[in-house]
Design a protein that fits this description.
Blueprint: E1 3-4, E2 18-19, E3 22-23, E4 30-31, E5 41-44, E6 51-56, E7 62-67, E8 77-80, E9 85-86, E10 95-96, E11 100-103, E12 110-115, E13 121-126, E14 136-139, E15 147-150, E16 157-162, E17 168-174, E18 177-178, E19 182-185, E20 209-212, E21 219-224, E22 230-235, E23 241-247, E24 255-258, E25 265-270, E26 278-284, E27 289-298, E28 322-325, E29 332-337, E30 350-355, E31 365-368, E32 377-380, E33 387-392, E34 398-403
Parallel strand pairs: 1-31
Antiparallel strand pairs: 2-3, 4-34, 5-6, 6-7, 7-8, 9-10, 11-12, 12-13, 13-14, 15-16, 16-17, 17-18, 17-19, 20-21, 21-22, 22-23, 24-25, 25-26, 26-27, 28-29, 29-30, 30-31, 32-33, 33-34
Length: 409
């Protein structure tokens, strides 16, 4: 039987963990309102203790709301624009483009990126005085959501995405000037069938993820390859890129995080083939790498809305695990939508595991909730070590849950 996350009486002066003797207590699900057509993305407003959430709204525009330092939330606000939306799936589980955001290095400007309704890369930014720029079309032809990162050791931000030919494309911003689009090569996963029982051909178009290698100025861009293996491009300190193939068998996009207290990074994804939706992981550094290893836990398959396995069509996609390091601790968490009622259940809940400082992993535990057909995202509550989860609730609203900061942190 799976564990339910709760606060044990001996945990009050210990770091936030998920172990049999000390388990985090999460809040109940809170409905913040709105109607989401994508996964939400949360970011701290630079120079403040405000957390701001962005998502695609019911009219496919970009929407936002923000939390104040007293715990209250603003009303929903429209920022305009039109995000990509796969209307063909609207009767089941529609596929809507999700925004992402990053602080511009050396400024208090927050910049937001998304795939527009014309499949181009679009952006806008929040100025230090709280005003918003007009939308800016950067061009390109995207087949998935963009990812953005600061190039380590520089003031440059770089955006990565799957292009129309399924290759990895990029452009970057330096001193206010954007580069032209550059093809990096590779082949990212693109669905070739609508059979949800065949995880080698089914899923949404792959979205890359970025992570800085600890104690280096190297940037790694991971993605699900067209052959369902874990692949990446590594940016070396001289600015060149090295393609890499880590093997494995993926049925979702990967997620990655640094392993606290080490020079390692760890990658997580939903397994395929004999793994049958299991949580899988790989980890390593520049010198060594541990390839695919199975962890406890099973991730949700396609969201089928109660239809038989063969009748789900092209609705939704397989669950993506999300890795997160709790600030101020040596705890690495991984969160995911589980197989509560079976691989193709329409009402999954959120599950979690944590890697504790001794390197062991806790039993998986359930946070409950109803993350509907989009994946979850996490953020640190500014000014605290508190974790907060955001996701699309069962009827489309913006939902949130948080783990309180425990005495002694």
């Amino acid at each position: 039987m799976k564990n339910i996350l709760k606060l044990g009486p001996i945990a009050l002066a210990l770091p936030l963990m998920l172990t049999p003797l000390c388990q985090a207590q999460w809040s109940a699900e809170h409905n913040l309102g709105g109607y989401l057509q994508s996964a939400p993305y949360a970011a701290q407003v630079p120079g403040s203790n405000i957390l701001q959430v962005f998502y695609q709204g019911g009219d496919h525009g970009l929407y936002t709301r923000w939390g104040s330092t007293n715990g209250s939330w603003s009303n929903e606000a429209s920022l305009g624009g039109q995000l990509y939306f796969d209307a063909a799936n609207a009767a089941g589980s529609p596929v809507g483009a999700a925004p992402t955001a990053i602080q511009l290095p050396g400024t208090n400007v927050l910049q937001v990126f998304y795939r527009g309704s014309d499949n181009a890369l679009w952006t806008l930014w929040r100025n230090a005085n709280g005003s918003w720029s007009n939308m800016q079309r950067l061009g390109g032809q995207l087949n998935g959501d963009p990812a953005v990162a600061q190039l380590p050791g520089t003031n440059t931000i770089q955006v990565f995405y799957q292009g129309s030919d399924h290759g990895l494309y990029t452009r970057w911003l330096t001193n206010g000037t954007w580069s032209s689009e550059v093809g990096m090569g590779g082949q990212l996963f693109a669905p070739t069938c609508t059979d949800v029982t065949n995880d080698s051909c089914y899923g949404t178009y792959a979205t890359p993820i970025t992570i800085q290698l600890p104690n280096t100025n190297d940037l790694e861009v991971f993605y699900r390859g067209s052959d369902n293996t874990l692949r990446s491009f590594r940016r070396n300190q001289d600015g060149s890129w090295t393609p890499q193939d880590f093997g494995g068998l993926l049925s979702s996009d990967p997620s990655a995080a640094p392993v606290p207290g080490t020079d390692l990074i760890q990658v997580f994804y939903r397994g395929a083939g004999n793994a049958d939706g299991s949580l899988m992981t790989q980890w390593g550094n520049l010198n060594s790498w541990t390839h695919e290893t199975q962890m406890a836990g099973k991730l949700l398959g396609s969201w089928c809305g109660g239809a038989p396995r063969g009748g789900c069509g092209a609705q939704a996609s397989y669950a993506v695990p999300k890795a997160y390091v709790q600030p101020g601790t040596d705890n690495l968490f991984v969160f995911y939508r589980g197989q509560d009622g079976g691989e193709f259940n329409s009402a999954p809940t959120i599950w979690a595991q944590v890697r504790t400082p001794d390197g062991s992993w806790s039993p998986e535990g359930s946070l409950g909730g109803d993350p509907s057909w989009t994946d979850i995202n996490l953020a640190q509550v500014p000014g605290t070590a508190q974790m907060e989860i955001f996701y699309r609730g069962g009827s489309g609203f913006l939902a949130t849950r948080w783990a309180p900061t425990i005495e002694g942190q």
